Amino acid sequence: MDSESEAQIAGLVLAAGYGRRLGAAKGLLIDSDGTPRVRRVCDQLIAAECRPLVVLGPEASYIRSHLPPEASSVDVSETCEGGAHKPGLGLSLRTGLQVLTQTTAQACAIMLIDLPGVTAAAVLRVVGRAHTARARELASVRARGTWGGRPGHPVVLGRSHWPEALDSARGDQGARMVLSRPGTVVVECGDLGHGNDIDQVSDLERYGMTIGTTPRQKPTPDSRPRPKP
User: Domain containing 164: what range?
Assistant: First the structure.
């Protein structure tokens, strides 16, 4: 990949979700080594030469403080849609694409932050395969990573498909309809990690992850200092 083609794919990190069964904003997830998930995903996209735009929701200010300097962000609550809807996957995707349509990016690499098994190597592989489609115009590419044959992320979506994605992304559905059409490049990544997501507390334990504590969060009763007898 040359520098010109690399600059044409933006990164889009969807970090606005709230895990109801998890009981916390997904943007607060922290990997087993102490790295915030939002920072790790941004770093993976930067390594693939995709400058990330991060879509934020609950705890936006705190999560924004963990972004690398190369990343930009948008808060769904500051949009007209965000003020009237819960930040589901569809709203997050629409918010991000609306910002990217104002740039010169010809495609975007879409990532979620609750996928600890998606490695930097997998992001590089999918983005690299998308770049091989440049001969038929990067703006028309559709590519997605699969894990043992199961569709997942990352996803690369060319600019010509953004209007359809903006129209079809609703509720918890993102670009599924666009990607389900024939012609989507399937990139198997099962040899590089896994595509399992973090959906509930038991998943945190399975992967050694934690939830970050924001300055506004109060300690639980058991953790408060007790008066001396």
Answer: 3-213
Q: What six digits make up the tokens of 158? A: 């060319």
d(CA 197, CA 193): 12
**What parts of the chain have a pLDDT lower than 50?**
1-6, 82, 84-85, 218-229
29 located within any domain: yes
Neighbours of 214 (CB within 10 A): 15
- Structure token digits, residue 3: 């520098």
pTM: 0.86
- Please tell me the distance from the alpha carbon of residue 123 to that of residue 109, in angstroms, as a whole number: 9
Q: In what order do the strands lie in the sheet with 185-188?
A: 72-75, 52-56, 9-15, 107-112, 150-158, 142-147, 185-188
| CATH number assigned to the domain comprising residue 96 | 3.90.550.10
Residues 42-51: tens digit of each pLDDT: 999 999 999 9
Q: How many structural domains does the chain have?
A: 1
Length of the chain: 229
Q: Are strands 52-56 and 72-75 parallel, antiparallel or unpaired?
A: parallel
- Token pair recorded at residue 153: 């992320």
pLDDT per residue over 118-164, tens digit each?
999 999 999 999 988 765 689 999 999 999 999 999 999 999 999 99
User: Would you list the DSSP string of 2-66?
Assistant: -HHHHTTEEEEEEE--EETTTTEEGGGEE-TTS-BHHHHHHHHHHHTT--EEEEEBTBHHHHHTT
